[in-house]
Inverse folding.
C-alpha cells in the first residue's frame, strides 16, 4: 500500500489513481459523494473514468463473487451460500424463538431481538469481541452466547454464511488468493478509526 491508503484522499491525489484501484470508503454516503465530485470535476474534459468507490463490505462482496465465478474461492468458503440481510434476520428470529419462554413470547418483540442479535454478532466479528457464555458472564451475555452458537450451528448445517463471517474469512485467507484477482493498490478514505477486522486487512495487505 501507499501513504494515500491510510486515511484520506485529496482532490489532487484522486486524479492520479490507477484505473483498477478501488477506494474503500468508511460510509456508503462518502463513496457516493467522492464519485459524484470526481465526475463533476471531469465533465469539462473529453472523457474520464469513474472512481471505483465502495464500502469495505461491497469490495469484499465483489471479491468473493469474482472468486466464486472462477472457482477460486478459499476452501473454507466452497459451497457456502451467502445470506442476505432478510434471510439472516429470519434465521435469527427462528433460533431466538426456539429458545425463549413461549409463555412469555407475547412480551417480546421478536423482530427487534433478532435485529439486535444480528448487529451484536456483526460487532463481535468486526471488533474480535469474545462473548462470555460462562456463569461469570451477565445473563444477557449468556443468552446471546446461546443464540449465537445456535445461529452458527444452523448455518454450518445448511452450508450458509452471513456477510460478517464471509468478510472475516476472506481477510483471513487473503494471502492465498490469486494476486491476479486483487487490485494493484487499495485505498481507504474517511476512516477516523479502524475495527480489529479492518486492521487485520491492513496487515494482510502489507
Amino acid at each position: 500500500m501507499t501513504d494515500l491508503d491510510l486515511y484520506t484522499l485529496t482532490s489532487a491525489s484522486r486524479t492520479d489513481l490507477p484505473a483498477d484501484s478501488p477506494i474503500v470508503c468508511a460510509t456508503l454516503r462518502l463513496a457516493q459523494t467522492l464519485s459524484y465530485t470526481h465526475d463533476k470535476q471531469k465533465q469539462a474534459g473529453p472523457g474520464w473514468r469513474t472512481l471505483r468507490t465502495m464500502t469495505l463490505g461491497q469490495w469484499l462482496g465483489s471479491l468473493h463473487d469474482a472468486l466464486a465465478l472462477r472457482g477460486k474461492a478459499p476452501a473454507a468458503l466452497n459451497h457456502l451460500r451467502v445470506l442476505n440481510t432478510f434471510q439472516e434476520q429470519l434465521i435469527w428470529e427462528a433460533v431466538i424463538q426456539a429458545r425463549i419462554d413461549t409463555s412469555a413470547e407475547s412480551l417480546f418483540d421478536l423482530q427487534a431481538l433478532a435485529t439486535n442479535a444480528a448487529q451484536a454478532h456483526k460487532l463481535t466479528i468486526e471488533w474480535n469481541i469474545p462473548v462470555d457464555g460462562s456463569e461469570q458472564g451477565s445473563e444477557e451475555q449468556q443468552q446471546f452466547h446461546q443464540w449465537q452458537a445456535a445461529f452458527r450451528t444452523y448455518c454450518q448445517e445448511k452450508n450458509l454464511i452471513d456477510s460478517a463471517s464471509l468478510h472475516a474469512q476472506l481477510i483471513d485467507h487473503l494471502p492465498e488468493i490469486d494476486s491476479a484477482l486483487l487490485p494493484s493498490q487499495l485505498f481507504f478514505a474517511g476512516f477516523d478509526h479502524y475495527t480489529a477486522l479492518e486492521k487485520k486487512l491492513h496487515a494482510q495487505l502489507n
User: Anything to note?
Assistant: Residues 123 and 129 are 8 Å apart (CA to CA). The radius of gyration is 20 Å. The chain is about 50% helix and 5% strand.
